[in-house]
Amino acid sequence: MSILEFKDVSKSYGETQVLRDINLTVKEGEFVVILGFSGTGKTTLINLMAGLEQATTGQLNYRGAAITAPGRERGVIFQNYSLMPWLTVNGNVALAVDTMFPNLSKAERADKVTHYVDMVGLGHATARRPAELSGGMRQRVNVARALAMDPEMLLLDEPLSALDALTRANLADEIEGIWDADKKTCVLITNDVDEAIILADRIVALNPDGTLGDEFSVKIPRPRDRVEMNNNSEFKALRSEVTTYLMDVGIAARVGGSKTLPNVTPIHSVPVAVAKAQESGLEERFLNFSQLDKVYPTPKGPLTVVQNFDLKINKGEFVSLIGHSGCGKSTVLTMAAGLNPISKGAIRLDGWNVEGADPERAVVFQSPNLFPWLTAKENVAIGVDKVYPRASVAERQDVVEYYLERVGLADSMDKGAASLSNGMKQRVGIARAFALSPKLLLLDEPFGMLDSLTRWELQDVLMEVWSRTKVTAICVTHDVDEAILLADRVVMMTNGPQATIGKITHVDLPRPRTRKALLEHPDYYNYRQEVLDFLEEYEHGNTPKSPLAPPATDPKTIAAE
């Protein structure tokens, strides 16, 4: 029996049409996932279901009656938490209970609050206020508050997108458990393919033009364990099918561009005679982390965050650094950038100790940190003008425009940074880093603030530009697929404090790489399993007693030294 129905629904804001001719039926007890790129109208769609907005044309019904306003039968969980900061966990949930059940006694309402707070695992934090909670805990309060309305249908608008990967996975499992226990009808908006497959009975793609795309039925038996899914042939096939569809409809082919790179030399390049003398000895140990420690002073005494980090990286190698939150990944990266003093040990690049920041080491952070009053071109030009002082104005301009074209901003070079989307700003950050012609490229979760589908596109951009430069690179990430896609080696870190290298896996997959090709490669899921197994061992702050690294005879895994 259908519970929700769209009939030829369209939604416009002024002259801008966001949704076009939507026809969708949701059955009672079904878990439907709407999957699409940012800007495709996913949130508008959920707002229409919730009655927070009205369709421009068409008909939208709930149990046969037109939806004209919000109703208690449709509980909504948004991306942001919208909690009352002065109220405790119990107080925030009590707002919903008191509104929905005003005729119950005080004791009965208190019992309901306790029931829903316990359901989301926050019984130990009932007296805490939002400022004292982690992001995942705040979203749990949001879920409990929505459930306290006892709705027939749950509408979830990207409720997990602001959370780290581990918290996101754990909360997704909890949402599935709640759905399975109460058999509520659920509609989830997300941009994460794995999340969609784990949770959905049916996946519906939303195209960039605001129309509904293909539907994918998910027939994998429940419960669906994330690690076990990695070896499930049906999961792999569906994952490839959904990913391919989304990339085909949403990611435009990269254009080569008209600019060529001028033959100019950056000031940090070593003299020719020195370079020739160094060539033979430094190709294999171009970047050397030697018994690196990082210690921070605290009121309780010194805290060792990273201990004995020892790694040799070859010239032109791309290394991914992965581990759970708090394992010191970014600390290692900022020490390599010269932005964070080394407590013990040394880092040598191209035969020289790393001391202080230098344009020979370009960094792309999670937030691109552009000057908002400058254009994209002017933001890139700042570094180029300093690094190529002997080049002519025209040559420096060519360098700037060449890399902006490479990252797909040929038509947006003269736009102000403040007017660019987050994805476009990060493209500028990538162009700026490559334009410095660095010896070492350092990427600190460069796509972490972007939705997963935009990340796919920028990963392709990064790989395309890197394949031209072959710059030595390290990328900090929490995304297993990203780590494997980008890297020659995946370096896995143990949990902090005193975090160190736990395992290193060689990724022997052909280049140039694309996400589509990797999903079809017979070895891809083997590499993915190695990384997932390691992360699972260290999940929830665990510190395994026995070493995880297999014997040195394993051709895919080598010792850190």
Summarize the structure in words.
This protein has 17 helices and 20 strands. With 561 residues, the chain is α/β, with parallel strands linked by helices. Strand 14 (344-349) and strand 15 (352-353) form a beta hairpin. The longest helix is centred in the N-terminal third of the chain and has 18 residues, at 165-182. It starts with a strand and ends in a 24-residue tail after the last helix. The model is unreliable at 252-256, 270-281 and 546-561 (pLDDT under 50).
Could you give a quick summary of the protein structure above?
With 561 residues, this protein is of the alpha/beta class.
Explain the layout of strands and helices.
Blueprint: E1 2-13, E2 16-27, E3 31-36, H1 42-50, E4 57-62, E5 65-66, E6 74-77, H2 89-100, H3 106-119, H4 135-148, E7 153-157, H5 165-182, E8 185-190, H6 193-199, E9 202-206, E10 212-217, H7 226-229, H8 233-250, H9 272-282, E11 287-296, E12 303-313, E13 318-322, H10 329-337, E14 344-349, E15 352-353, E16 361-364, H11 376-387, H12 393-406, H13 422-435, E17 440-444, H14 452-469, E18 472-477, H15 480-486, E19 489-493, E20 501-506, H16 515-520, H17 524-537
Parallel strand pairs: 3-8, 3-9, 6-7, 7-8, 13-18, 13-19, 16-17, 17-18
Antiparallel strand pairs: 1-2, 1-4, 4-5, 9-10, 11-12, 11-14, 14-15, 19-20
